[in-house]
């Protein structure tokens, strides 16, 4: 029979799939002999079974009862025992951390009798009633579905009646009264009494936590973090320990190193006389962990030792939650901690230096996405102006946006394209949509481990928290700075999550240190820890990767920059980009020419311009391959607008004037060439085959540029790439022309010029007939933009705006297929083309030059599909190098 419950003494960290992250790590700490309050875990399998069937799997509660008995025997107390109750916490814990997104219920086991027992054994009546109040409230909302605001209202009314500012001023008698009020609220709202049976409390709490897996905010968080919906959560049932028993108690969160910068040294927040929930909620401002050293040196020393044990054991930065109950330290959670991109790089290098991990492990723990984040600009500190407020630098980066004071407003404005900064006293999981929509999150309360900080860091979103000089009035939608400045909703703020500062207005941005280093190319010097760590990760990636990385570049300037970023050639030079501006007229003439002579004139005028372009690029990429793609403009991009022309002519006629003769001719020609669906029309190789002299002009320009570079002592390595081929015969016709023209150039220049000829694979038919196409192609390059468009039948120009958000929301795909390669469909075509192309021509060079060439996940796919290179925009080149290295590990 399936087993659904494991004691903490039975599991381990390798069981995270079954026991969830929290449960498996609690078991691991228990095995390591660290002080963990005893407990057990209900598996994710149990959760899936409950959610799938709507009922509990047979035997589940018998198993729970057995583990509960063990727990009771071990602690010498019974759950809810009237004179000395064992109390339990019930917490969610999924495979992947989802901070604050699911339910937690504390103090299970308190009822009208045992609350007195707790008061007696703790010697603290107020504490007992406060715990009972919390239980009634938590069960009331999460299990019995009562609107939380009803409890809040009752609490506010009581405080007003007693004339006290906050809950700490309520005494035991007040809280006992509040419990009665809460119980009445539950009865009124649900018709049910608050359950007095501790076992029933436990059972219903467990089911509520399972159900919270499908809660709205949990689902939203999973979509955002790409966590699968069918994993389910485990539930941890654990003996309660109390950090709120007086000044010798407290709760805290700690990291073995700084999660923002990766710097060595214990790091964290502590809240004396408080439960763990109070720390994470950021409701009261915490003190730095160093303060604990003063308050309780013994507990601090033990904490340090345990954390060292954990970091050495996990060989990584760990974060923990702990509670001190009357001087006794308890470890309540650990996990490999979330970190910023900067910290990930620094840790990778430092832990390798310390011999805890290998260089390859260090590389595996950083990401291209993180590197891209470090390449983003920072605020220009020379011109920041006056600081409006300071807070805790919780998640780095620079962001500018209009201040908004609630989640809904953030979402509304962001949907209109506005950049916003979400300003709150503190955030709760309900603020998640607003946090996603905002550029930055700013709170006036809470430390580096508050909800805002943890969630923002996980998302890579800029965050400053605990800016307690700011008085945030969410009701009035404004906040006030210490100097009296009032920030109304809509006021532009600049938030520096690296320094923890906030400025009024939009502060200008400058390049980051990492960017400056990368842009300096071979001459760059690593001056700071993070730059050095990035340099080392890239060096390791370059040493292990099999994929080469080229750049998509159309100008000598881009080529120079790409080379500094480490590009090993140009994988795509889009020649149509060379025909913009003034040259557009010539292209228009060439396409629309009524006579051969007119067309030849236009081509002759384009030839020297095109030769110059090629010479510059070949010079910038001397010694490296440069793939020149023949012209591939969707026709409408180069032709004058039909409606404009018609209006011009009609206006002239309406004025009684003779319309411009050229306009009339153009209109007729544009009418002839008009296409309803230009992306599927006369573009790519089709244009080259239809417009006489076009291919010849481009090839001649390139051949002459190569001859010039050779004569100048250079090492040009031009390749000619034919776009949008669907059949080998198209390619063959172009190849014949290329060979003819290059032979002529060789003759005229006296320098033998040859260039490999290859094709793009960007139509399903090309992929499916790749074996035949390879007879005439020396290389393939996947145009995954068009291949995605034509495989899915999605217009690449329209759909993303039109209906992708609905598709993303409804889970048709987790991410746009134009961003991350669709492995199942487009990827399958890639696989077929690679296999059949190489079967025909074993030494076929194969690359990719669609946008996917710079997307981390897609790079991993191209590695495993056996490609030789990826080509992407110059700024993505370092990202692709890093990911190609990681793919090879
Ligand atoms: C492609 O289709 O993937 C490609 C690189 O070509 P373009 O984007 O220029 O159509
Ligand atoms: Mg294309």
Automatic annotation (TrEMBL):
Its EC number is 2.7.9.1. Keywords: Pyruvate, Transferase. It comes from the Bacteria. This is Pyruvate, phosphate dikinase.
